[in-house]
Amino acid sequence: NGMQCLGRTETAVNNLNPVFGVKFQVDYHFEEIQKLRFAMFDEDKCATQLYEHDFLGEFICTLGVIVSNKKLHRPLILANGKPAGKGSITITAQELSDNRIITLTLSGRKLDKKDFFGKSDPYLEFHKQGEDGKWMLVHRTEVIKNTLDPAWKPFTVPLISLCNGDVDRNIKVLCYDYDNDGGHDFIGEFQTTVAKMSEAQNSVEFDCINPKKQKKKKNYKNSGIIIVKSCKVGMEFWFYHFSGVGIDFTASNGNPREPSSLHYINPLGSNEYLAAILAVGQIIQDYDTDKMFPALGFGAQLPPDWKVSHEFAINFNPTNPFCSGVEGIAQAYSACLPHIRFYGPTNFAPIINHVARFAAQALQQDKAAQYFTLLIITDGVISDMDETRHAIVQASKLPMSIIIIGVGNADFAAMEFLDGDASVLRSNTGEEAVRDIVQFVPFRDFRNAPKETLAKSVLAELPQQVTQYFKQRNLPPINSAPE
């Protein structure tokens, strides 16, 4: 059905409550809606094709929903849309926002013999301790057949998966002898931390202990030794958040009651402003757990005293300008149109500074991983160019980006100028922007294209802008373990 297979878990033998060790690292393109399908099968040894295994049920959702929930527990559904009996699936996800990865190489020596006719078939499991004290499986190595002195292949996992990025968090390593029938024999275990394993310049050894044997035997030493031959911490990965919409209500947009106006809502209940909000917002909203977005307007006179405002809440609630999801922004937008008077001038600086204040605040509280994105939809001609350039140059030092969508057919040369793709943006005093934070897209290029195409090109530059920000500030990872 056009979906490609991202990967399969291992088979849990003879087990109705399996915990799968295989992790799927999905590159998340937040500019796209990424649909995922989790299908559960009962393995049939004779089957050669996936569909020949017995289908137990499936669950379908978007990656955005998983990212924002962190943990989902859902019933399995059969192909006919009916629930698959009692079966359910739990999906746990972790944002790889700490960009450190860890590579471990381990081996074993003189492990206990568990197989009657041969030696043992050892494998290791790594578990981390959760906040609730419970242990959770993080990684399972491959099985090495018929040996008491195994050498496992080096493996790499994100540090955040192994220990939540905390090098002093307890990790439990368990050693088992693999059995085909699923009744794997326990060999022994030990506890450690990344900090302790990092001492493996020339390898660190751990006694592999079986507590039952330890209690019974007086002179019990261990059930073998596990050696951490090497432990390296390096770098990879990044992450960000969405922070609101600014809408242009200046007179150049035309009278919203007349069909020639860009704000005129046509019989289909849409216009370019609404189309732009929905196209971009639908993608971004999956990544925000509470889906509450501030929506601000600029360039209009407001009741009751008809003063011009360049940063007003379109839901007319200045203390709580938040709208629920993209639909909420669209509703508030449509509802406010009859109550305001389009005016001017087209000042961008106030709304950019508004979001910059939030970004600066987050920075002071040292929430290095927070990144702010402002979406401005406008008909184009900026009145406060000097102030806007100054605001953007200052904002380029903060964790924020600005996406501008130009609606209508105006001359957007000034907008292209703010989008520093061609040359570095300077403020009127000559100060240069430390990085390009503006992405400008003319809506007219996408009028007849599918929504996804607009969202893709609008959000395409964002990941580089985020990465560049963190690199320049030399921000996380903090206290990286030695190479």
Automatic annotation (TrEMBL):
InterPro entries: C2_dom, C2_domain_sf, C2B_Copine, Copine, Copine_C, VWF_A, vWFA_dom_sf. It comes from the Eukaryota. Keywords: Calcium, Cell junction, Cell membrane, Cytoplasm, Membrane, Metal-binding, Nucleus, Phosphoprotein, Repeat. The keyword Repeat applies. Gene3D superfamilies: C2 domain (2.60.40.150). Signal peptide: none annotated. One of its GO terms (biological process) is cellular response to calcium ion. GO terms for cellular component: cytoplasm; focal adhesion; nucleus; plasma membrane. Its main location: other. GO terms for molecular function: calcium-dependent phospholipid binding; metal ion binding. The keyword Signal does not apply. Residues 1-76, 83-207 form the C2 domain. It is found in: Cell junction, Focal adhesion; Cell membrane; Cytoplasm; Nucleus. Pfam families: C2, Copine. Calcium-dependent phospholipid-binding protein that plays a role in ERBB2-mediated tumor cell migration in response to growth factor heregulin stimulation. Monomer. Interacts with ERBB2 (preferentially with the tyrosine phosphorylated form); this interaction occurs at the cell membrane and is increased in a growth factor heregulin-dependent manner. Interacts with SHC1; this interaction may mediate the binding of CPNE3 with ERBB2. Interacts with RACK1. Belongs to the copine family. This is Copine-3. It comes from Mastacembelus armatus (zig-zag eel).
